[in-house]
Amino acid sequence: MNIAEKTVRELILRARGYDGKEQVEDFQRDPDDAELDAVERFETGDNDPGRQEIEGWLNALDEEAQAELVALYWIGRGDFEGRDFVQAVKDARERRTTPTADYLLGAPLMGDYIELGLDAVIEADVYDDA
After folding, report:
1. pTM of the model
2. How much is the CA Rg of the chain, to the nearest whole Å?
3. Please, where are the H alpha helices in 20-77?
4. Residue among 20, 26, 51 nearest 40 (CA)
5. Which of 83, 77, 80, 97 has its CA nearest to residue 127?
6. What is the pLDDT of residues 59-99, one digit of tens each?
7. Which of 128, 6, 11 is CA-nearest to residue 66?
8. Whole-angstrom Cα distance, residue 27 to residue 7?
9. Own/partner long-range contacts of 80-84 (Cβ < 8 Å, ≥24 apart)
10. Nearest-angstrom CA–CA distance, 124 and 17
11. Cys staple from 76: which of 18, 20, 116, 125, with CB 3.0 to 4.6 Å?
C-alpha cells in the first residue's frame, strides 16, 4: 500500500471530528440574523477549518493513495470484502469522476467506514503497511 496504517488512523480521527459536526438548525430564529448565518456557514460549509484541513491532507496524497482510501471506504461500507482490496483500488481509480476530497468529505460516516475497511483489509492479511 502507498499509505501507512498510522496515516490512515490519523485521518480516521480527523474524519470523525468532522463527521461529528452537526449543523444547528433553529427554525425559531430571526431570519434577519446575519451574524448567526455567518457562524453557520463558517462551521458547516466549505470554510470549515476541519474540512479544509482534511481536504488539504487528501489533496496532498498521490492518486494511488487516494484510490486506496476510497477502496477502504467502500470495503467498510460493504461494497467489497477485505480480501478484494486490490480490485477495490482498481475500481476506485477507474470510477473516479470527482476529486477524492470532495467525494470522501461528502460521504456519510467517512471515518467509521474507512476504519471498518482498514480493519477488514488487515484481517484479510492483504494490507502491506507503507
Report:
1. 0.79
2. 17
3. 34-44, 49-60, 63-77
4. 26
5. 83
6. 999 999 999 999 999 999 999 999 999 999 999 999 999 99
7. 11
8. 40
9. 81/120, 81/124, 82/117, 82/119, 82/120, 82/121, 82/122, 82/123, 82/124, 82/126, 83/124, 83/126
10. 28
11. 116
Q: How many CA atoms within 13 Å lie on the side-chain side of 12?
A: 17
Could you tell me which of 120, 119, 125, 118 has the C-alpha nearest to residue 3?
Answer: 118
Q: What is the pLDDT of residues 13-71, one digit of tens each?
A: 999 888 765 333 334 445 555 444 444 444 455 667 788 899 999 999 999 999 999 99
CA dist 49 and 51 (Å) reads 5
Burial class (CB in 10 A: 0-12, 13-18, 19+), 129: exposed
Question: Using CA atoms, how far apart are residues 71 and 123, in angstroms rounded to an integer?
Answer: 15
